[in-house]
Amino acid sequence: MKIGLFIPCVATYKLLKHLGLDVTYPLNQTCCGQPMANAGFESMAIPLAEKFEDKFKEFDYVVAPSVSCTAFVKINYPRLLEGKKKCETAEKCIDVITFLHDVVKVKELPGEFPHKVSVHNSCHGVRELGLSSPSEMNVTKFNKIIDLLQLKKGIEVVEPERPDECCGFGGMFSIEETDVCHRMGQDKVKRHIDTGAEYVTGPDCSCLMHMAGVAKKEGMPIQFKHAVEILAAGI
Predict the structure, then answer these.
(1) Cβ-contact 12, 5 below 8 angstroms
(2) What are phi and psi of 126, to 5 degrees?
């Protein structure tokens, strides 16, 4: 099983190597094209999608530590590349949480993380990639992020009130509706703090970056780590 790592993430690379997997980071990668497409300039995303295909077509899986990038590739590439280039990577692209939980089926991890952690369920992860159960649906509750985090010794995992409510980032939304974005971020960070957690974690860099920025600006006492950073702690 050959794995191509999309986006440079030392923790993801280290964890996958520790699990004995054949993982490579192809050089000269670029953006997946999501920012351009979200801003209404889909034509500018097409060359990036074509380059992504060329870089990753040889791999069995394309693993990414960003759920929004993964969702964009899986859902939009087949349409963007239709009639231009054969799209092979959409089916191969997978976020790192799903890969560890469903493909590798990790059952134990070394190291410990003796902290209380609040899980942020990113919108793309919940509703497009199925990392956790959406609260608006009458389905059996599940959460693949929590399943993996609970493998770490010493960790206490909690969720905030309204566990899958948006943090407000939303890509271009944060530029076009700055005040609304910031207020949503304030509300979300406060709910994470109300759990008594020391850290907020999740599977998407953009959500964590946004909330960390809000917390720093407002002087809110909480830290942020990508879920893979916690899973790789002590390795």
Answers:
(1) yes
(2) -75, -50
- What are the pLDDT digits (tens) for 127-153? 999 999 999 999 999 999 999 999 999
Q: Is 64 exposed, middle or buried (0-12, 13-18, 19+ CB in 10 A)?
A: buried
Closest CA to 100 of 228, 207, 234: 228
CA pair distance 217, 185, nearest whole angstrom: 11
Give Rg (Cα) of the chain.
Answer: 18
Written as six digits, the tokens of 172 are 């271009």
Residue labelled with tokens 């070394």: 110
For the entire predicted model, the pTM comes to 0.94
Q: Angle 178-194/205-218 helices, nearest 10 degrees?
A: 90
- Residue 37 scores a pLDDT above 90: yes
> Which of these, 71, 62, 153, lies nearest to 112 by C-alpha position?
153
